[in-house]
Amino acid sequence: MKKVYFDNAATSNPKPDSVLDAMQHYLKHICTSPGRGGYGQGLEAGRIVYETRKKIKDLFNAPSEENVIFTQNITYALNFVMMGLLKPKDHVITTSMEHNSVIRPLRFLERTRQIEVTVVPCDAQGKLAPEDIRNAIRDNTKLIVMTHASNVTGQIMPVEAVAKIKEQAGVFFMLDTAQSAGVLDIDFKRLKLDFLAFTGHKSLYGPPGTGGLVISNAAAKAVDPVIHGGTGSLSDSEMQPGFLPDKFEAGTPNTVGIAGLSAALDFINEKGIDSIREHERQLTLAFIRGLKQIPRIKVYGSEDPEERVGTVSISVEGVDLGKMAYELDADYGIMIRSGLHCSPLAHKTIGTFPEGTLRFSFGVFNTMEDITYGLEVLNEMAAKIK
Question: Which residues are catalytic?
């Protein structure tokens, strides 16, 4: 049976061979803790971590390598900021298209620290009007946090306009790039971001368990570390170091994962962001055009591929979507995700709550032949619906 993977919004698959090679090389020939030993292999582990920081710094145009903080994933990065920055009575603005990795920490802090949260509603396509962000700003607004692209509809948010509003208001701005890093050009300095949260296992094509945070110097001073412990530096002190990146990196890092991420970043740079974006745009355009020809199928979000990344959510009239997702895999080898995709607010926004949608998400290894096959199968399945 033909196998087609259309769940890259969850985790990109496959990984480049170079990622696997880099991780195996680390485990076989290095396998030591960076910054914890002055011997050769320990120094080599430190070099891997430093060079990966530099690649992240260059990818996002971060202020320096030290402003790149490694975490277990983007959820940890988002939590580190919200838990370490927000104080009682602070006000936060977010949108109705956010993932639970943003909403759940905010609801927790709303309950435990009495922070105030405004969820700015997007329209039925998942589009955000930037002026609604401006109108939500209060005297006690501390942070604007929002996704760069929706993991449900693929909708790209107007972050440039929000960045200007943030600068005028003098508040912090955090961007969730889970669905955009590696696909869209993201310039930390140009957007005047304070925090950029990223994950390694999606469109950066790195291994699971990798991710992090790019943080401005001013923002770093305002955030308290959430986790304290060994850093390999200032070992004579019982207090967490106050300098970057050690302030936010307690404990032994996932060096094998970081080695894989380093190779993945090389892969991204060799392919080129523009080339990857155009490839996914062409796949998305062909898929949406084909879906419009199939009866009973509804496509959510903008039909303009310029306004979205390679994620397409659909519903099928008269069909249990969970059952259809199972059949797509079992009978046709097509792997997708059904349900709410950890984003209930987004589904309420586009009118698909509580059932959710069938989500197809494309990556650099998908081909136009995959798209054609997917459309043929959906057309065949739709024809069988009574």
Answer: 342
